[in-house]
């Protein structure tokens, strides 16, 4: 599929629009234009897309269309969406940071779940970048066109855990090369649905955008699409209908752990985007459903934590190693599952 999204661009005269362009997959079934676009544009409601159509701002193959126009294979679909005027400048915000380590070259932070790493469509404040701008002066940028000071890698909004931030141009280039060369050490801990069959294993398969859902990634083991990705996993604890696993990243693709674990049949617990917010393993008993609903409430996000981070210090050459504890929501979730698993074994 070629659902290729152009980078949003701002109308220089009015700064009132963001532009998106997609090319439908050659196997695309006829689908309403508003539904097609709502599948691919994050944080944009179907009603907002319909308003864009009413204003004549949806185009298929260069022609204006209505919301109910059916998108067909290989159609080029473009939309212009209005959004409130905003400044291009990313503002510094006094947001507390959990700083694990800091020197004159690097900062290691423990990002809480719910915090977006850098501003983007629908998230222009409250991000890690807004906080970094407040707490640190003159952080370098890896890409002059993107205002993401200090960042050389990222983790998802609802994933908690460790990130390293570069404080100097030298540190940024040095760290960027380490991530490119895959010489960094990153261990994640996750709770996944199901009893993972093997105690440990290796998941390999290219990752690219899902063929029908732009907001998801998918695995293409035949290598026909996407980028090479490898995840190593080890089971730490078996709790009946869920397992606790440790994941080691050999590569760093978007949603890598989330999509790789789903690919082998073990979606992350309460991962809404990949279907983990539904009961995927267990019984049909009402009490079990209530128990799982309580677990979802305790940990209202995908149960994934970037626990360990290792890298070579840019100037000293020393191998730095950091570890942060499992956050309270995942800890409480595990305790609840342990009680349930023990009670089930005793029955």
- The residue ranges in which pLDDT falls below 50 over 5 or more consecutive positions are 1-17, 83-87
What is the overall silhouette? globular
Number of helices: 7
Rounded to the nearest angstrom, the radius of gyration is: 22 Å
What percent of the residues sit in helical stretches (DSSP H or I)? 10-25%
Number of E-state strands:
17
Mean pLDDT: 87
Q: What structural category do the secondary elements indicate?
A: alpha+beta
Strand % is 25-35%
Spell out the helices and strands N to C.
EEHHEEEEEEHEHEEEEEEHHEEH
Q: Roughly how many Å apart are the termini? A: 50 Å
Largest sheet: 9 strands, mixed
Describe the structure.
The chain is α+β, with helices and mostly antiparallel strands and 347 residues long. It is 22% helix and 27% strand. It has 7 helices and 17 strands. β7 (99-102) and β8 (106-111) form a beta hairpin. α1 (33-40) packs across α2. The radius of gyration is 22 Å and the shape is globular. The protein starts with 16 loop residues before the first strand and ends with a helix.
Structural features:
single chain, 347 residues, alpha+beta, nine-stranded mixed β-sheet, four-stranded antiparallel β-sheet, 27% strand, disordered N terminus
């Amino acid at each position: 599929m070629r659902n290729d999204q152009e980078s949003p661009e701002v109308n220089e005269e009015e700064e009132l629009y963001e532009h998106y362009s997609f090319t439908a997959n050659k196997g695309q079934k006829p689908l309403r234009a508003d539904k097609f676009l709502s599948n691919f544009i994050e944080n944009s409601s179907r009603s907002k897309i319909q308003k864009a159509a009413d204003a004549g701002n949806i185009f298929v193959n260069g022609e204006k269309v209505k919301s109910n126009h059916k998108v067909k294979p290989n159609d080029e679909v473009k939309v212009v969406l209005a959004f409130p005027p905003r400044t291009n400048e990313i503002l510094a915000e006094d947001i507390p940071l959990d700083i694990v380590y800091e020197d004159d070259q690097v900062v290691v932070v423990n990002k809480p779940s719910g915090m977006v790493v850098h501003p983007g469509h629908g998230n222009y404040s409250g991000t890690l970048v807004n906080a970094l701008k407040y707490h640190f002066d003159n952080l370098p940028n890896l890409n002059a066109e993107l205002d993401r000071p200090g960042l050389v890698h990222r983790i998802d909004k609802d994933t908690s855990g460790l990130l390293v931030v570069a404080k100097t141009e030298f540190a940024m280039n040095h760290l960027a090369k380490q991530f490119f060369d895959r010489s960094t050490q990153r261990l994640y801990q996750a709770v996944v649905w199901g009893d993972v069959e093997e105690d440990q294993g290796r998941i390999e398969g290219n990752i690219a955008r899902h063929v029908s859902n732009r907001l998801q990634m998918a695995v293409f083991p035949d290598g026909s699409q996407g980028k090479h990705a490898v995840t190593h996993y080890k089971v730490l604890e078996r709790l009946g209908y869920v397992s606790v696993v440790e994941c080691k990243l050999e590569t760093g693709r978007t949603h890598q752990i989330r999509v790789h674990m789903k690919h082998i049949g073990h979606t992350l617990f309460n991962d809404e985007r990949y279907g983990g917010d539904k009961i995927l393993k267990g019984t049909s008993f009402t009490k079990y459903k209530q128990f799982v609903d309580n677990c979802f409430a305790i940990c209202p996000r995908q149960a994934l934590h970037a626990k360990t981070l290792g890298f070579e210090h840019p100037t000293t050459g020393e191998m730095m190693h950091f570890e942060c504890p499992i956050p309270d929501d995942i800890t409480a979730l595990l305790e609840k599952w342990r009680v349930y698993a023990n009670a089930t074994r005793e029955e």
